[in-house]
Amino acid sequence: MSHRLGYILRYNTEDVNCYKDLARLRGVTYITWEKKEKLKDETDEPDPVNTYEKFRNYRFDVDEFRRLLLVAVSHAKQNLKVADF
Question: Comparing 57 with 16, which gets the higher pLDDT?
Answer without folding.
Answer: 57
